[in-house]
Amino acid sequence: MSHDVRNRLSALRRAFHRHPEPAWCEFRTTARIVAELERIGVDELIVGRDALASEHRMAVPPSETIHEWRDRAADAGVPTAVLDATADGHTGVVATVHAGDGPSVALRADMDAVSIPESTEPGHRPADEGFRSETDGYMHACGHDAHPAVALGVLEAVVASDFSGTFTVLFQPAEEVAGGGKPLAEGGSVDDVDYLLAFHLGLGYPTGTVVAGATEPLAMAHITATFEGASAHAGKDPSGGTNAMQAMTTAVQNAYGIARHGDGMTRVNFGRVEGGSASNVIAEEVTLDGEVRGGTTALMEYTRAELERVLYAAAELHDCDVVIRRISESISVDSDPTLAGLVADVARDVPAIDTVVPAAPLGASEDATFLMDRVHANGGRSSYLVIGTDHSTSHHTPTFDVDECSLDVAVEVLTDVVSSIGERRP
Amino acid sequence: MSHDVRNRLSALRRAFHRHPEPAWCEFRTTARIVAELERIGVDELIVGRDALASEHRMAVPPSETIHEWRDRAADAGVPTAVLDATADGHTGVVATVHAGDGPSVALRADMDAVSIPESTEPGHRPADEGFRSETDGYMHACGHDAHPAVALGVLEAVVASDFSGTFTVLFQPAEEVAGGGKPLAEGGSVDDVDYLLAFHLGLGYPTGTVVAGATEPLAMAHITATFEGASAHAGKDPSGGTNAMQAMTTAVQNAYGIARHGDGMTRVNFGRVEGGSASNVIAEEVTLDGEVRGGTTALMEYTRAELERVLYAAAELHDCDVVIRRISESISVDSDPTLAGLVADVARDVPAIDTVVPAAPLGASEDATFLMDRVHANGGRSSYLVIGTDHSTSHHTPTFDVDECSLDVAVEVLTDVVSSIGERRP
Amino acid sequence: MSHDVRNRLSALRRAFHRHPEPAWCEFRTTARIVAELERIGVDELIVGRDALASEHRMAVPPSETIHEWRDRAADAGVPTAVLDATADGHTGVVATVHAGDGPSVALRADMDAVSIPESTEPGHRPADEGFRSETDGYMHACGHDAHPAVALGVLEAVVASDFSGTFTVLFQPAEEVAGGGKPLAEGGSVDDVDYLLAFHLGLGYPTGTVVAGATEPLAMAHITATFEGASAHAGKDPSGGTNAMQAMTTAVQNAYGIARHGDGMTRVNFGRVEGGSASNVIAEEVTLDGEVRGGTTALMEYTRAELERVLYAAAELHDCDVVIRRISESISVDSDPTLAGLVADVARDVPAIDTVVPAAPLGASEDATFLMDRVHANGGRSSYLVIGTDHSTSHHTPTFDVDECSLDVAVEVLTDVVSSIGERRP
Amino acid sequence: MSHDVRNRLSALRRAFHRHPEPAWCEFRTTARIVAELERIGVDELIVGRDALASEHRMAVPPSETIHEWRDRAADAGVPTAVLDATADGHTGVVATVHAGDGPSVALRADMDAVSIPESTEPGHRPADEGFRSETDGYMHACGHDAHPAVALGVLEAVVASDFSGTFTVLFQPAEEVAGGGKPLAEGGSVDDVDYLLAFHLGLGYPTGTVVAGATEPLAMAHITATFEGASAHAGKDPSGGTNAMQAMTTAVQNAYGIARHGDGMTRVNFGRVEGGSASNVIAEEVTLDGEVRGGTTALMEYTRAELERVLYAAAELHDCDVVIRRISESISVDSDPTLAGLVADVARDVPAIDTVVPAAPLGASEDATFLMDRVHANGGRSSYLVIGTDHSTSHHTPTFDVDECSLDVAVEVLTDVVSSIGERRP
What we know:
- The first copy, chain A, is of the alpha/beta class.
- Chain A folds into two domains: about 5-215 and about 335-425, Zn peptidases (Aminopeptidase); about 220-330, Alpha-Beta Plaits (2-Layer Sandwich), CATH 3.30.70.
- Chain A contains twelve helices and twelve strands.
- Chain A has helices at about 5-20, 25-40, 65-75, 80-85, 125-130, 145-160, 180-185, 245-255, 295-315, 335-350, 370-375, 405-425, and strands at about 45, 95-100, 105-110, 165-170, 195-200, 210-215, 220-230, 265-275, 285-295, 320-330, 355-360, 380-385.
- In chain A, the strands form two sheets. In chain A, strands 1-2-4-3-5-12-6-11 form an eight-stranded mixed beta sheet, with helices on both faces.
- In chain A, a hairpin with an 8-residue loop joins strand 8 and strand 9 (about 285-295).
- In chain A, helix 2 (about 25-40) packs parallel to helix 6, helix 6 packs across helix 12 (about 405-425) and helix 10 (about 335-350) crosses helix 12 (about 405-425).
- The mean pLDDT of chain A is about 95.
């Protein structure tokens, strides 16, 4: 790979890194992707709302938040056409090139950031080299700055190759909140796709390693529960209200005690709580923020059903009400073994790759699974690749950074796989 | 009072002491009372079932238990007439004398024992002097042996006096379990009574002290709750059952957390638990035995209603069922201040009394309150007296014993009050 | 009482009402009181820090809050002398007049507001008549605007009378948070006082009623508890952290279950909770805000000791730490019956008083009790008066307002009591 | 295999079936095994105490229980020599034959019954054919009647073969309670063993199937916890005791909430609870019976450590004590893949075997793992075989029964494996 390409990949990734945007607010990111796609030249370019089944979007932030990020993007010069196409939090892009007869192959890349303030410490390369986040409190701490850069690199390489078939790149918004995969799938983007590739950098694997087909992503459901009681003076009239604090604690105590399952792994967590007004007032309202996971979609659904019963009964126990909101969810879908086998074979031939892991549990949740599930349902195949990168610290920490050399490797592996699909048809 | 009377009282109390019988099983006790009443001579003698509204009996033990005690009584020579009248746990006696015009006065005495093994230690007078319980595991540890002796003494004295009016003595079964007061009240025994006196020896007051009118007996409700789940192997199939153990613990944790009440004292307790089969099996059934109390009947009812909601919701929370049984209850009724005033006046004139407490909280539960409530409802007056006795140890302990000198005092005070009612009509 | 006086009282109360200041931030209020005292003329005037044992102050807000209110006061023209004397939240005033031989009498009035936004609705007199709170979010919703007006009225009347003795008025800060009574007592203000009068308007009693001596104020302790665990990813590493959320819920569940006490009333409440970061992260820190109360100081202390054990053990149970902060507390002290008797006698002679309640439970907490306790300890007497006022709605609601006619009544009753103490020496 | 052998196996299994004996009480079973061994003829015969490291025995029942079963055995004619060797619950047998040079091979069979009353229903073969349990309440409901019959069959066949080496059969007591494996291992029985075979019939596999090497047996620890508080009258003195009931419920609620682990499966269960005395008494003592399991020994130990912290802190939270007893435990050891490979190869050559599963998770706990661990520590190999049998209903149910045809199959497979080890030396 030429130095030019390598430099362009790094530059692009750093551009994304400097302007992190959270789920459903990737206006500036979308605009930059569109600009690159126009430069490369594609046959179809669907931006924003037209790519998404709007009603299937999950974990959409409040309008004010969306407008705030939109205004910021507008101030930064994002073209009106993009702002219009992505209005009200409909970010994302689907780009397609038609290159003659052949299979329909798709590549999915996510693009949202997380609400972690980026480190300013010396030794943190983005800080040292001047491409640290320019938006306080937000950061690309999971590699979703590198993902669209890689995907654009693959597209450019495929266009320049003799690949015969259809190639689509899906730039998916809102992966961090498990909100964007489903509306993209429901929007029909992959309905004609024969082979879908999704990928993630890092996840503990070093530069030079590839996991050809990840398995057992954790199915996940994110919910909030608001307990509603009635306040009263705790000294004079302790029985005059109904106690949302007690209802909440009964729920949490019993939620963690939901029975483990003989079929595999389950998880329950409440990670955030807030409510009540003052020490001497029976708490009127308390809100919990939590999630369940399962080794399979069924195990997640078992745990969520148990959790919802616990929440309703805990409210009833304290004569309160509870409002449960299903914020978002993702399902568990394994990579197709045949396609994963082709990926492994291809990867072994890439000089920069020293280790190929045929299959390994993902150990995390992913909403690319909605796209994979759709492709499988239509008779296609999909594989979720992990492409190693030497990362400084754990994902989702203020000093996370990727090894930019791995961007080239990722482009090379993915391009070779796409080409190979055209030839070998696994 | 003559030595003869004093000796007769002691002898009678010791006879009751030697043969303690628990609630609804006081067959031998009933027979002895009947024999004494026949010796004294009364105008009306109602034994057992005819004195009780059978369907209002509470905390009736299983048939086998009743039959066991009945057989024991039959073996001890209890006459068939008494056994017939008291069949199936309908113990108790109501005796009435008509002595011309005048008010209708009633005296209530309870007669059941408790399931505490009596001490055999030297220094425990019943053991030392040969009148210790002859039935293992049961004991008169609350003075209900002295109560019928005193009541018989009062009756004999009233008969011998120039009292003009009607005098009834109610020998009530099943006070310890709060089971006998209500059926006696519902049976109509006190429907024509103008003045009702109930009494208890001891309760921390020494010989020579009288509380003229106790107030604020605790309303009480005794319940059991059986949680029913489904068993499963805890290792292989932890989610295969529904866990009665967890349901029980959720209930207990939250029951003790029922809101205190601004209007006064409430209590909750679960004093006994049992259930499940083995360490590696999800518990299928667990039973709790508990109670609630309140400073007023309404406070008890508030707490019971809260408790029942907690129990049902705790079962629901763990997908179990719960069967709640209301074993028994007692209400809270205060002594009538006017009658208590007369009692106090009379007591001050009794030489053996050195301290008269006009009114004091009872601090315990009593089902004589059902009789008091009925009398008040019909326009009559009632008072609950506490007649002091130097007692060795706390009520309901294996070394409890009363000062037999206090029996004479009790007879004298109560007889004087009965006489005085005839004269003064408070 | 002249129309002039009546008008002056209302005007003064309305001035305080327009500028509510919370606990330890009563800079402007202090300045206005000082100005009035200088107008009236007193022999000793102690402002702020010199009146308080600084280290005994409780529930002091953060420095930034204090500085914000101080700056606001400075902007409103509060003299530098007052700002200096009250620096760093040392508000309050003690004023004394020496009028020859005779007893030392003191009157205590509190002066802080609460953080409730005042109603703007028609029918709410302060809104209708233009003296509504001028500081958003704060309001005199408990009558502590009227209290210093009344106290100043009494002082002026006593000065004008032939009272012989020493008369001190204590303008106490921070009553709402139970923070100011103790440092004022520990500061020595009442060490030479023979008779202390404290008072409150309203509390459900109408204009024309006086409670001569309140009893059984609830002892209270306000605490916060911060559970400190360690975060971890709830999906990948559920056992990798220590869960402050679970520790908190174990604490709350068991705190409400602290055993009721045979000696009287107890209360426990957690009215506010906040903590954790996100649904998929084991919560690292959760903070509770709560209180305990008791019918006596001992009962409050019993409950607080139990609560602290529960909090520490709940943290231990989940391998977390907990930091407990004792924010403030108040004790329970009854009015002296002799002094209350004198108050009742005097009040019966005041024409505007139609009902005198000799004694009644206060049913609330009060930190004037620290001053009362100090006076009693030195052999003096104290009484806590409730002076009725027709109030629109409950204390601590956005539409609370007092009947200004009751201000004159309060001044008259209190002045007559002070005079009477000089004459009768109860 | 001859009809004679087949009949002898069935007859022997039925003899064991008629006389089920629980853990550490297998006196009659031991005697019958000894008699069979004497018939066959072995070189070394170690009975009872000499085979066991007595202090490592776990889950030993009370002396009265042991004596009761011993007396029953004596009445049935068990020889004094066996009774002496097995005194005080030291059951079990180790038999060895020396057949020239060659490897040391051992076979382990367990022999205890469970406390389940056997079905009397028609269709339950043991009932229909007259070999139902003759001891009420106990039953061979897990196949441990067939296991010693099979082991004796293998021994007889090996003796009759040209096997060259040392062959030991371990008849292990107390497997059901995870009590006998460790003392047998610590007693040195397998210290010189090169190849250890353990086996179980059934476990859901039909006749004709063999699992060559089971993996991932669940590590397990069985504990009891007794909470000790102090009783008090729940009505009069609710704070006078310390509440073992509340301590227990806090423990259970939080035990089920012990964090799941990222490394694999964990389990917690409390399957039995009992305590307290009466509804109106604060519970003085409550005992829990429970267990933890883990997919690995480390995961079990993680969970047990968490559980013990929960138990101690729950006691502390309610000012109670807790006594934790470690009743028994088993560890997790995988079959050696090499030996399992040899087993699979041999099994494929057995005509009666139609399905060979090379390796599969055991899904249950086993204390043969202590013996396997010891062999591995000394450089040897072990494999745990599951030999299918068509079983009527689940293990540990009243109608469990094995297909007696599978006994022959088991003998054949195991004998062939033993012979093969001599030849092939895996």
